[in-house]
From TrEMBL:
GO terms for biological process: ribosome disassembly. CDD domains: EFG_mtEFG1_IV, EFG_mtEFG_C. PANTHER family: ELONGATION FACTOR G-LIKE PROTEIN, TRANSLATION ELONGATION FACTOR G-RELATED. It comes from Rhizobium lusitanum. It holds the Pfam family EFG_C. This is Elongation factor G.
Length: 653
């Protein structure tokens, strides 16, 4: 079986392309994953094929990455409008990182749009590989009525519901065809010395030699050929499928590529897992591609026995099924197989680094609808994070509530639907509270005496303490300057422990940071003093001193690294400023052509707004990662509102 992925932005007709390709020589068999990955099995040219139709949402990009991991080649489906080229930038980025041979298909050429050369020029801004036209459109007025193949120099007229008709190249297209063909030959000659000689000697190269060179440079991932068509009308589908059949590399090339990227012995690489999901009453289903012979139910794969092998289309298990080299199959009761992973008979190897998903930008607390659901939710989220690498599961620091980090609102909606439909857990979501802190703005001193008599031995401790603001980031410090044994040495650790306890909640209701406490005097009683008494005296005394120290609210500030196409960099300065952030600068992303890395300091309470602003400003393409940097003071009405909200019942910080 040969396998390819069709990927690209939403609304570019990817699913229609797959449907048309699968129906060229018979009826395809389709299956779907809850994560939006559709698999279509079909036959073409007496060969078995599997097309992986990756979801088009940028929030589901990780599933497209995993599909590429299993693919001999891919088709990047793009719009015929030049202004929409930027939407393909994330896909070009992952395709090039994966080193997957790619054919770029400009779909919906029947719709009004820009010139094809403008589309290619706009896309080239995001591709290190040369985008090389293999076809040009034939126009009749404003309509595209056919295409001309630049290698064979044959022209075809589209016919609705029928195969295209061979025609002579129209005079109106002859000059453009000659120009585009010359450009094609010039680029191909960079990879073939014989072709270069023929061009220098002004000899016409034979078509079969050009097809052979084209096939080789695609298999070697040297260029990205560009084909055109309109899948909704079936236009260009046969030519696209023939290009895949004759030019896409065999599964052995994929095996070599994965072994090299994963540092695995190629001779031992047996299979790779690339997708998984949970089904009601079935459990975890893992999709695997066979990279070697001999796989069947019960054999050792990844260090344990392979579970039941299932047909993709009908989900039925058959112990007699023996997947052939290159076959894609499903397996259940193989929970030991992580996804994605490279598999030998006795070991599991990590996938290449390029499969890492982008950092989730949206954080939400999931609130279960019942106590029964509360008990199930933690275990279920752990299961889902195994099959969805775009999901991160944590606990809220202050409450221990279930905190999920997702790629965006669509991803969150799909997660909640899976919890309800598959695991019967109903949840609502809320925004997590930023982690605020407080400190003091001025020093103060306190003399606190703890005395308690309840019959028998009493409690007595007397402490004199001074507190002062520490420099930012130093945290809590404790020192003592007691002289003459006023406070015995064995009680001083208890004084420090009491002071630390007082830091857990300050006058504003938040944890206190960056404060220094000094014990400079006190008294004790030979009978009634104890560690407990001094601990209590210290805690109460420090609390009193904090209330005198002009408490200041502290907000968290995060260092954010924002990844965006360069055309959006200018507008981001205003967005960051509007969020009261600080711009640190930006630079070209050396790993992705046409992208910038924009660095800024963003208040923790504005991260949700940053995610929304970034999605809006970049049409959902931009993303950011964050790391905590420091706490800074927050004053005025905003600080007062946060303190009031914190005092309300049920609000946790």
């Amino acid at each position: 079986m040969r396998c390819f992925t069709v990927l690209g932005p939403s609304q570019t007709g990817k699913s229609t392309v797959v449907e048309r390709l699968g129906s060229l020589e018979g009826a395809p068999r389709k299956s779907s994953s809850p994560y939006g990955l559709n698999l279509t099995e079909f036959t073409f040219g007496n060969e078995a094929w599997c097309a992986l139709d990756a979801p088009g949402s940028s929030e589901a990009l990780v599933h497209a990455q995993h599909a590429l991991l299993a693919s001999d080649a891919c088709i990047l489906c793009v719009s015929s409008a030049p202004e929409e080229a930027v939407l393909a930038a994330p896909y070009l980025r992952v395709i090039e990182a994966s080193e997957t041979p790619c054919i770029l298909f400009v779909n919906r050429m029947d719709e009004p749009g820009g010139r094809l050369r403008d589309v290619i020029a706009a896309l080239q801004d995001y591709a290190n590989h040369t985008l090389l036209l293999r076809q040009i459109p034939i126009r009749e007025g404003d309509r595209i009525i056919g295409s001309c193949d630049l290698i064979s120099e044959r022209a075809w007229r589209y016919r609705e519901g029928q195969t295209s008709a061979l025609i002579a190249i129209p005079e109106s297209a002859a000059e453009r065809e000659h120009e585009a063909r010359s450009e094609l030959l010039e680029h191909l000659s960079e990879f073939d010395d014989r072709l270069l000689e023929e061009l220098i000697e002004d000899r016409e190269p034979p078509s079969n030699a050009l097809y052979a060179i084209s096939s080789r440079v695609l298999r070697e991932n040297r260029i990205i050929p560009v084909l055109i068509g309109a899948a909704s009308h079936g236009n260009g589908m046969m030519r696209l499928m023939k290009a895949l059949r004759h030019e896409a590399p065999p599964v052995g090339v994929l095996r070599q590529r994965l072994a090299r990227a994963g540092n695995v012995d190629e001779n031992k690489l047996t299979a790779m897992s690339f997708h998984a999901y949970h089904r009601q009453n079935v459990g975890k289903t893992v999709l695997v591609r066979a990279l070697g012979e001999g796989l069947r139910q019960g054999v050792s794969l990844g260090g344990s026995s392979l579970g039941a092998v299932q047909h993709l289309a009908n989900g039925k298990s058959n112990s007699a099924v023996v997947p052939a080299l290159g076959d894609v199959f499903a397996t259940v009761k193989s929970d030991h197989l992580p996804v994605p992973s490279l598999l030998t008979s006795d070991a599991v190897a990590a996938p290449p680094e390029w499969t890492e998903p982008t950092t989730p930008m949206l954080e939400r607390i999931l609130v279960p609808g019942s106590e029964r659901d509360e008990n199930k939710l933690s275990e279920t989220l752990a299961k889902l994070s195994e099959t969805d690498r775009g999901l991160t599961v944590l606990q809220e620091e202050s409450t221990g509530a279930h905190l999920v980090c997702v790629q965006g609102p669509v991803h969150l909606r799909d997660l909640c639907r899976t919890l309800s439909d598959v695991f019967h857990i109903d949840v609502t979501d809320r925004t997590p509270s930023p982690i605020y802190r407080e400190t003091i703005a001025k020093p103060s001193e306190v003399h606190y005496r703890h005395r308690k008599q309840t019959g028998g031995a009493g409690q007595f401790a007397d402490v004199k303490l001074s507190i002062r603001p520490n420099e930012r980031g130093r945290g809590f410090t404790f020192s003592e300057t007691v002289k003459g044994g006023a406070v015995p040495r064995n009680y001083i650790p208890a004084v420090e422990a009491g002071a630390r306890e007082a830091m857990e909640k300050g006058p504003l209701g938040f944890k206190v940071i960056d404060v220094g406490v000094t014990l400079y005097d006190g008294q004790h009683h030979a009978v009634d003093s104890s560690e407990h008494a001094f601990r209590t005296a210290s805690k109460m005394g420090v609390r009193q001193a904090l209330s005198q120290g002009a408490a200041v609210l502290m907000q968290p500030v995060f260092r954010s690294e924002i990844h965006i196409p360069s055309i959006y960099s200018g507008s981001l300065v205003q967005s960051v400023s509007a969020l009261k952030g600080q711009v640190l600068g930006f630079e070209r992303d050396e790993t992705a052509k046409g992208w910038d890395i924009f660095r800024a300091l963003i208040p923790g309470g504005a991260l949700d707004d940053l995610a929304r602003a970034l999605r809006s400003a970049t049409q959902g393409i931009g993303y950011f990662s964050k790391t905590f940097d420091h706490f800074e003071e927050l004053y005025g009405k905003e600080a007062d509102a946060i303190v009031r909200a914190h005092e309300e019942p049920g609000v946790a910080h």
